[in-house]
Amino acid sequence: MTIPSPNRAHPLPAEPPSNLGPQERAAVEDACARLKALPGALLPILHAIQDALGFVPADAVPMIARELNLTRAEVHGVITFYHYFRSTRPGRRVFRLCRAEACQSVGATALEAHAKRSLGIDYHRTTADGAITLEPVYCLGNCALGPSVLIDDRLVGRVDAARFDELVAEARRKR
Amino acid sequence: MSKLRVYVPTDASALAVGADATAAAILAEARRRGREIEVVRNGSRGMLWLEPLVEVETARGRVAYGPVHAADVAGLFDAGFTEGAAHRLGLGPTAEIPFFKAQQRLTFARVGLIDPLDLDAYRSLGGYRGLAAALAMSPGEIVETVTASGLRGRGGAAFPAGIKWKTALGAPAGQKYVVCNADEGDSGTFSDRMLMEGDPFTLIEGMTIAGLAVGATQGYIYLRFEYPHARRALERAIATARARGFLGADLCGSGRTFELEVRMGAGAYICGEETSLLESLEGKRGQVRFKPPLPAISGLFGRPTVINNVITLASVPVILDRGAGYYRDFGMGRSRGTLPIQLTGNIRHGGLFEKAFGLSLRELLYDIGGGSLSGRPIRAVQVGGPLGAYLPESQFDTPIDYEAFAAIGGMLGHGGLVVFDDTVDMAAQARYAMEFCAVESCGKCTPCRIGSTRGVEVIDRLVAGEDRARQEALLRDLCETMVHGSLCALGGLTPYPVRSALDHFPEDFRRAAAGSARP
Fold first, then answer.
1. Beta strands in B232-350 (DSSP E)
2. ipTM of the complex, rounded to two decimals
3. Which residues of chain B does A64 touch, with a Cβ-Cβ cutoff of 8 Å?
4. How far is CA A157 from CA A106, B52, B204, B440, in A?
């Protein structure tokens, strides 16, 4: 038995109500327009939106669903399945700390404790000044030179507590 | 004075310890001294403990210095490093460094030698000779060559590549795909990353050959988001290959077509499992599929699909170029050819070491790897990523061979070795294995989805000393259920690190009751 999806049976209005700002709306529309013809377009579209905005706003979900002829549940399910996609705005820099075994063997567990303590936040949280979001990551492919941290797209190896503090100070200078 | 040529790697691991600053300092210092200079940004030689490893071209070949940080640069110029002169960071001719000299580089033959995006340099060192050979063969002959080479999947499962290809070739004609699994999520592995950054054309060539072999016209590289440097290298290399006629319609004037695209993952370890990866490529949650049907029959978008790991595909060009026998003559038993071994974690000489199968773990850890980084005794080695067993010292004589590892309840996986010294708490490592499984489970199979969380709880009670015998029996029973009740390797193999920790390091689970702590 095939259960028709609500979207397909009853298409959403042409302009679903949305709280997206103009910049966010433009980013979502642009990503969909450029990429929706690709086979398996959903991940590329979500990447493009997150590249542009730093996150995938909840209000983007109905727009994406409509463009790809998917249900909102399907789009939401994909966004929440993958650790990388986020639905809230991150800090100005995202710090990804490697938690995996190779980094553990050279002190990642202590570094993790230091990071949480010195920033005053747990994983998936952003510092009160909006400077830094802290995320765990499971391997950055720098396993001979750990502990490793990925700051946005910048990989840093052999990070101890002192080096971490320097990196945080650098990051806080970014406005 | 002749123009100076200096190599500074652009590999992510080299960048992670300051290679960009080193390169900038060398340029600035040369300019200050009025020396004409060319700084080539090469891949890494794989001696990661020496990064940033700087090489200078001299009359006696390339001479290495490392690790060279920006602050060392002026001193190197003063010492005359431009002529290969002695210096405290001097390592002599690169090719003579023991770690490098002892290798047999087939798949990584060019990595570290050239600018990874220089197609002419690639071709001058044998690049695209494999494709030229393949273009002169029938699809069946290409598949036969790969089968005869004995190449097995380097992603971990070690399935014979030629058999996969033969199945896809035999599937009815129509749209077929070649998919490269570049979702290298195992801790302690980086060979895929290093190859994609250091010699991306090799992967592109290997995938193109796979396309010719099975009749696929479209390829996808599914790359993890954690590898932004590899993404840039691949996308630029693909654009270059396309512009020069090595991709696209009418490959090298042959009338054959092969297109290639990079697709980014989004932080899901499970997408390294081939059927989850295909789901993800289709734009869905990365949930494992039942097999059969095999991907070679019904894979991406339900079409016949060859899906192989980066190193598997990147080993194909040398096989086509030099012949199946050349590759097969390396190795032992049913493990033919070479394996790029990754020495990682608490090890002095960490890096990539490509060698024929057959070396013992002990030789790798001590002779090649130089022992632990901390100088303390090595207590355990995890081989094969987070789903691999923890091996104690008594198993260090196991040779690098798929069957030998299977025989001791371990697996070679993707060839990563993670070294731990005697400060490791093996109960904590067992707990982490379960925790990791809970975080990364796709949720399809209950033993994996729920069992992993229960596993963390049981280990906590065991370590706390609550009714120890009963907790251990429960944990072993849970492991048994996960092994037999999971569709894929995540749930099915997470028990391996857990049980090996219990079997070989039982004392670490008794600490609370004994009231003692490890140093």
1. 259-264, 305-309, 331-332, 335-336, 338-345
2. 0.96
3. none
4. 11, 12, 29, 24
Q: What domains can you pick out in chain B, each with its CATH number?
A: 4-97 (3.40.30.10), 119-327 (3.40.50.11540), 330-421 (3.10.20.600), 426-514 (1.20.1440.230)
Q: What CATH topology corresponds to A93-172?
A: Glutaredoxin (3.40.30)
What are the sequence ranges of the domains in chain A? 6-81, 93-172
Tell me how close the Cα of B276 comes to any Cα of chain A, in angstroms: 12
Please give the Cα distance from B7 to B49 (Å, whole number).
17
Q: What is the DSSP code (8-state) at residue B364?
A: I
Q: What is the distance between the alpha carbons of residues B212 and A107, in angstroms, rounded to a whole number?
A: 47
CA atoms of B435 and B448, how far apart (whole Å): 11
Average pLDDT by stretches of 10, chain B with 519 residues: 89 98 98 96 98 97 98 98 96 98 98 98 98 98 98 95 98 97 97 98 98 98 98 98 97 96 98 98 97 97 98 98 98 97 98 98 98 98 96 98 95 96 98 98 97 98 95 98 97 97 96 53
Rounded to an integer, what distance in angstroms lies between the CA atom of residue A104 and that of residue B436?
13
Best mutation site among B11, B13, B311 for testing chain A: the one with the most A CBs within 10 Å?
A: B13
Closest partner residue to A141 (CB to CB) among B190, B285, B350 is B190
Contact B328, B148 (CB under 8 A): yes
Show the tokens assigned to B473.
């029996």
Phi, psi of B438 (to 5 degrees): -65, -40
Nearest C-alpha neighbor of B360 from the set B408, B318, B312? B408
Pick among B45, B179, B187, B439 to test the A interface (most A CBs inside 10 A): B187
Token pair recorded at residue B325: 């026998």
Structural tokens at position A135: 């995320």
